[in-house]
Design goal:
heterodimer; A: about 120 residues; 4-stranded antiparallel sheet; 11 strands; globular; B: about 110 residues; mainly beta
Amino acid sequence: DAGVIQSPRHEVTEMGQEVTLRCKPISGHDYLFWYRQTMMRGLELLIYFNNNVPIDDSGMPEDRFSAKMPNASFSTLKIQPSEPRDSAVYFCASSLGGQPNEKLFFGSGTQLSVL
Amino acid sequence: QKEVEQDPGPLSVPEGAIVSLNCTYSNSAFQYFMWYRQYSRKGPELLMYTYSSGNKEDGRFTAQVDKSSKYISLFIRDSQPSDSATYLCAIQRGQNFVFGPGTRLSVLP
């Protein structure tokens, strides 16, 4: 398996524009997570899905952020409108689930810069 | 109080040194503890996990958990330049994971 695949690797956009980040999880994994990483706040969970259903979106900063998982092999994180404070590295991760569920598999991330 | 606290470093050591990385957590209900390693411009990857108090060894790495003190540690023996990375401790809460801010380690040749 190629691992968790994220696109694009880098995104530079202007304030107010819509940004869509994409993720393909590892085949067979039941859980998909979206994290955001910044120097100030570290790695923060935004939302996670189980079997394509959003389970916990309490980490989504505000209504400008939305995430979907239309099927088991694809998820998107959308920011509309984007703001400079959204600049960060966004990671997607997937896992098999269970207890303990110790292993998250991360993608390489999308470096987002909002000017 | 944050759920997981970690000294962000940075930490620089000479090659061959023993490295000690530490985290504290706030909720005694947490049962599963992990260490992830993150190289520059990469996603974190699992290094070690444990779910009981005591030590767990894997080659040059030892993970230690003290549940009475809510303290977790990672020791690296005979550190190598290839160990230079950011190390993040993590706890599992349900199916969710809470990460510490990470400690940036540099091992100098």
